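One chain is below:
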Amino acid sequence: MRVGERGQSEVIGVVLLLGITIAAVTATVAMGSVALGLITDEAQSASVENGMSQLSSQSSLVALGETDARRFDLGSVDGGQLRLDEDAGHVTVRVENGTDGDTTVYDGPIGTLEYVGSDRTVALQGGGVWTVSNGYGRMVSPPEYHYRGTTLTFPIVRLNGTEQTPQSGTGVVRRVPGDSDNVTETANPLENGTVVVEVQSDYYEGWYEFFTQRADGSVTKYDGNRTTVARLVVPDDVAFDRAISLGGEYTHNSGNNGLDESLYEEDEVHPSPGPMIDSALREGADSGEPLSNCFDADPCTGGTYYASGDVDVGQRVEFDTSGDDVTIAVDGDLDLGGNELEITNDGDGVVRYYVNGSVFANGDATVGTASDAVEAQRNRFYVRDGFLEDGPGQGSVDVDAVVYAPNSDTNLAGSVTLRGGFIFDTLTTKSNAFTVEHDDTLDDIEIRIGGGSGRNSITYLHVSENVVEVDFD
């Protein structure tokens, strides 16, 4: 090799080494800049989140009349953008009373103050603080929404302001008169029906999280229109002055005329048993005995018994309620098969079944007492889904009971005998061998369908609109 060629190779090697070094340094600086940017944005968002929580507390004090005005400081907002939209977020509160009609208690916007960062948005809305990051929303601090005994107080905090894109994170929040047209005074106490709270918001997932923690009823979120709906129980005293009460219709698919019209009523409104069932399941899971301790006992005595899934009854079960009532809580379906469930002692002790699924029976299954008389009130079923819904034929099933299953599309397809009081959604009879009898002793009995033990059923509802104006420096 010539000396010139070797010298040229050394130069090329140095150039390549310098190039690799410069590329590595450039990549490191770029990655460090991105990481520093993410850390900076997260720090600013966290600072604003803390400021929003303080503003939430201050605006609530102002909104509820404890002070006329308060100054606030959201911290540094240079890394993002503040936006105030008076029309963002919408709350509807109504009381659904079925055939008596619905009453809209509140229907209006609540306003939103947002800090929009690179990777996270923090917002004050309805007196609560919410955040969205990575496409998912959560609650930071709760809105003004309180249970006290059986009273729900919902002072809706609505934001107003003239500056839609403020540059400063400091200012004053003041109380202004609300719009009385948005609120309809509720006739308290509530006697029946369902209180529905509907929130349409970009932060609906946070509202969903809040309601599932605080609401005593069903909570549903709808991603399509970014809405969360909470349906809250109003206790209702349900009478059993007919053998069968239906939310829908009765259909007979056989040769005779079906049930006598005096035995049933249609198009009745029945509140959900869900909160009562949920309460019984929680109690059973926390302090109850395993259900096998009851169904395998001889007899099953007073107390609460719990099963965490479906239950198939495998033998005759006797109950002795002379010492205390019996509670059966099943977090699934209860299949009686062809077995007998019987209260063997005299008196007025009750066996209550809370079933978070459906109740099935076939063959010679029976539910009742040892008495020759019908004592339907001593066996009570609260069923979330169906009662005798499925199957081509139930056999010679015989039930003396009070059954509250307002979601059930019940089919009587065999030699089924129902004595007592029964509430279903719909009823179809598919043979001529069924028997339905009303227990006249139920005429003077009403069963309260409410939130269950330890639940906050709503008897009194107080909704108000409380408007605060946000003025930035």
Notes: Confidence is low (pLDDT under 50) at residues 28-39.
